[in-house]
Each structure stands twice: as structure tokens, then as C-alpha cells.
Amino acid sequence: MENGNQKLKRTMTSRHITMMALGGAIGAGLFKGSSAAIDMAGPSVLIAYLIGGIILLFVMQGLAEMAVRNSEARTFRDLVQAVLGKYPAYFLDWIYWKMWVLNIAAESIVAAIFIQYWLPDYPIWILALSVSVLVTAVNLLSVKVFAETEYWLALIKITVIVVFIIAGLILLLVTFGNHTAVGFSNLTEHGGFFPNGSMGLISAMLVVIYSYGGTEIIGITLAETKNPEKVVPKAVRSTLVRIVTFYLVPFFIIVSLIPWNEVNGVPESPFVMVFKMVGIPGADHIMNAVVILAIISSMNSGLYGSSRVLYTQAVDGRVPKIFAYLSKRKVPVYAILMCTFALYIAVIFSLFAGSRTFDFLMGSLGYTVLFIWLIIAIAHLKSRKKQSEKTSTYAVKWFPYTTWIAIIALSAILIGIIFTTSIIVTGITLAIYLFITLTYVFKGRFQEN
User: Fold this and answer.
1) Among 210, 158, 202, which residue's Cα sits nearest to residue 15?
2) How far apart are CA 269 and CA 272, in angstroms?
């Protein structure tokens, strides 16, 4: 093993981090969370995802600008601490770590549930354990192997989503054989476009924010990206266009093809339901395989992000130095193994909670993504004042209006979510945030360099 003070290796390129951001954001939140979002908002879920996409655009533009202005930054904390100070940076680091650790744990269970579609006689805990070992092994290899694996996993699911869009449009618009073109009547029937009113739309925003969460993982790749000042803005632009496209268009097809009140409560993903309608033998199995790959891809990105946060914390002396050690391949092995601990806890937890794990954790994870975006937006708003004299090759258009829109929108969503989310989920999330704050007050402050 080599000493952790040596730098991580810059081996990731634009295509790697673009696909990694897609891998983190196009996962269980899309393929499984879609059922919950549609159940809450009905066809108006399209508006929810459009609003979320616009907010994401403004937040990620700010992140890209800060990354370009601070080319020596390794993660979010370096970007935020230079602008907002130590506590917001500390808080952001740990809620981001908490988000991915809980997310990969929940998604290991979801992957196991979908694998049971083929192996119904195997218990969830065995299947979740198999997935966890696979993801751990990929991350323990070199960064280049991890990045290539994530690239191809993301590319496979994106390709199938494109096929899904084409097939869905054909089902909507073309009559063939025994199939009659469905049209768009399902958008307004069954209670109208807003069947659950504005509160349904607001409730769905928590799922939307959670679903888009993961895109900001670009901010964790800074230390391992070649020419981040050029690569990050390019990756942000291409990623945002693809994410909004891969969410809005598929959701439009789903709520147009299937009555919104028939989506929730069924064992398979809405994407599998649509592929069944195509009538091609084995289409549902193909889609189920893609859903599983999507979840493993998201877990892959999540383990990467959480381990790098823990690594940089160790380098700076905030956690035990053992997590700062790198292997000969420049991989923070102990940080990765620590983060995978959550995976194996989830395997044990699955013996009792089973499939409810994902639904329960999604609310808390949605809160966390929302706070991460808020902190990034606020940091960007103040970064111009702090670094006004520095020249930059990239700057956000229409600053500060876009950043203010993001902050106001996220604050409004937060207030709405508090009144529409389970008090248990809100309480647990608040307790976690208070714990993080207390660790800063009693310990973190004295460990700052």
C-alpha cells in the first residue's frame, strides 16, 4: 500500500464523467421511483420533472463555473469551503456521503427484487449479497477499469431507453395487427391532468429531486479528471440535455400509454409494462435486465462518490488516516471497503424489511439531494464576490438570476415537501442532520487544518 498523501490519478476523461453522471442519475429513481411519482402526481408528473430539470441545469452550471475557477479543487468541500466557510463544507461532505451510502444500500435490495423476476426461489438477501460483492470488486480495481465499466453500463441502458422511446411512440401513434394506436387520451382521463391537484405535484417533487440526484457526482471527480477546467463544463452541458430527455420523454410515453392509476402497486417497473405491450417475445425480460444494469450502474457511481468523500476527509485529518491509503493502482481501498459496509448491513436488513427498504429511504434521500443543491447554489451565488478578480474560461449566462431562481425554487419545494412528507421520514432526516452538526461542534472544528 502507498501513503494516502500521494495524489489520486487523473485518468478519467469527458466521456467517463459524463456517463458516470448519467449512471448516478438514471437508476432506480427512474425505473422504480417512476411508479411512486406517477401515483402522486398523475400525468402532471411531466411538469414536476421539467421543473426539476430546469433547477438541475442552473445548479450544475454554477458547479461547473466554480470548478473551472478552482482547478485545484478535489471535491465539493474544496469548492464550497473557499466560499462559504468550514461548517457548510463539512455539512455538505457528510450529507453527500450519507446520501450515497444509504442509496447504494437501498438499491442493492431493489436490484435483488428485480433479479427475483427470474430467480423466484432465491431469497432477496442472497441476491443482494451477490450484487454487493460485484460492485465492491469493480471499485477495488483501478479507476480506469471502474470508469470504463461505468461507461459501458450507462451506454447500455441509454441505448435501451432510446429503443423504449421509439417503441413507445409507435404504440402511441401507429395502428398495426391487433394493436390500435393509443393516442393521448390517458393524459386527461382518469381524473384529468392534475388528478391529485397541486399537492400531488408538490409531493412528487421529492421523488423528482431524488431521481435527478447523482448528477452532481461530477463535483467528486475533480481530482481524477484530466483538464477539469475544460472537461467539467462540457460534461455538464451534455449530461443535462440527456438527463432531461431521458426522463421527460419516457415519462410522457408511460402516462400516455398506461392510465396513471394503474402504474403503482404492480411488481414490475412501468418500463417493463410498456415493453410487454410491444408484444415481442422476451421484451419484458430484456427490459428487466436493463433495469438491473441501471441499478448496478447507479450503485457503482454511488460507491465511487462516497469512497472519495471519505478519502479526502481522511487526507485532511477529519477521519482516521487509514482511509487515506491508496493501493498501487491509486485506489482508496479502505475507504471503499468502509462504504461497502452499508451494502452488507442492507443484506442483513433485507431479512426483515425486504422491498420496503427503497420506498422508505427515498424520502430521506430526496431531502439530502435538495440540501446538496441548495448549498451548491448558495456557494455559486457568493463565489463571484470572492473570486471577482479571477479570469475564467467559463461563466454562467444570466448570473445571478438563474442561481437565484434555483435557490428560491428549492426553498419553496423544501417547504412544500415538509408538509406533504411522512413525519417519520422528516424526523429521521432531521436527526441525521443534527448529528452531523453536533459532530462538527464537538469534534470537527478541532480537526480543521
Assistant:
1) 158
2) 5
Residue 359 predicted with pLDDT over 90: no
The H or E element spanning position 367 is helix 356-386
Report yes or no on 1 lying in a domain: no
Q: Does the structure show a pLDDT above 90 at 405?
A: yes
Q: What share of the chain has pLDDT > 90, as a percent?
A: 5
pLDDT of 403 reads: 92
In a domain, 320, yes or no: yes
CA separation, residue 218 to residues 13, 19, 20, 235 (Å): 11, 10, 8, 8
Q: In angstroms, rounded to a whole number, what is the distance separating the alpha carbons of residues 99 and 27?
A: 14
Can you say whether residue 319 is alpha, beta or left, with left for phi > 0 and alpha for psi between -120 and 50 degrees? beta
| 134-167 per-residue burial string, b: 16 or more CB within 10 A, e: under 16 | ebbebbbeebbebbbbbbebbeebbebbebbbeb
DSSP 45-77: HHHHHHHHHHHHHHHHHHHHHHHHH-TT--SHH
Closest CA to 101 of 292, 269, 308, 243: 308
H-run or E-run covering 268: none
280 backbone dihedrals φ, ψ, rounded to 5°: -80, 130
Residue among 425, 355, 338, 426 nearest 107 (CA): 355
Q: Is 225 helix (H, G, I), strand (E, B) or coil?
A: strand
Q: Quick check: 229 and 316 in contact, CB under 8 A?
A: no
Query: CB atoms < 10 A from the CB of 435, how many?
Result: 12
Backbone dihedral region of 148: left (phi > 0), alpha (psi from -120 to 50 degrees) or beta?
alpha
Beta strand segments in 4-59, E: none
**pLDDT digits over 32-46, tens only?**
667 778 888 889 989
Which residues contact residue 357 at a Cβ distance below 8 angstroms, ignoring those fewer than 6 apart? Answer: 105, 106, 109, 110, 346, 349, 350
Length of the chain: 449
**The model's pTM:** 0.77
Q: Is residue 329 part of a domain?
A: yes
Domain assignment present for residue 5? The answer is: no
* Nearest C-alpha neighbor of 144 from the set 234, 226, 26, 68: 226
Residue 8 is given by DSSP the state P
The total domain count for the chain is: 1
| Domain membership of residue 109 as a residue range | 14-447
State the pLDDT at residue 293. 79
